[in-house]
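Troubleshooting log. The previous structure file for this entry was overwritten by mistake, so regenerating from the original sequence record. Sequence copied from the archived sheet and checked twice against the printout by T.R.
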Amino acid sequence: MVVKEELKKLGLHFIVVDLGEVEIMENITAEQREQVKIALHESGLELMDDKRAVLIEKIKNTIIEMVHHTEETIKVNFSDYLSEKLNHDYTYMANLFSEVQGTTIEQFIISHKIERIKELMIYGELNITEIAWKMNYSSVAHLSNQFKKATGLSPSHFKQLKDKRRSPLEEVGIPMSNGNGIN
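Regenerated output below.
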């Protein structure tokens, strides 16, 4: 809504393409672009026009949507899903993501799956077998191994420590800086 209002104030015509993405009908001047950027920044938003940055955000959002906000059982190959949904070659997206994010798409997906598994265990509505099936693991052992590798805890030990804090979604899957500016 903020984006729509700012574009209307500037007299620009647009089409909403996707959540957070608009296509402006006319060519805009550098001054108009800067006005949009400033207005969005004041509202806590960011203008992204770097196609690579936009694609990375779309990759992240698609993964988060699939892992955290889909109630269906995940039964798709993520590489095929991402390629089809975002209309890009998976190898290109994987290389770009790794180069810019400092982690692989696979690790990003695993990190989010682990957070979703924690959430499902905390809610306690599903047992570990049901969670493994829902999250498309080949077995409970596979889920347990990946969970332990990521958290240092077995799922059963984690369940006993239900008060263990979960990570905010925007911090999941991104390596922390080691203090010298290099990730």
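Residues 2-47 form one domain. Archived copy saved in two places this time.
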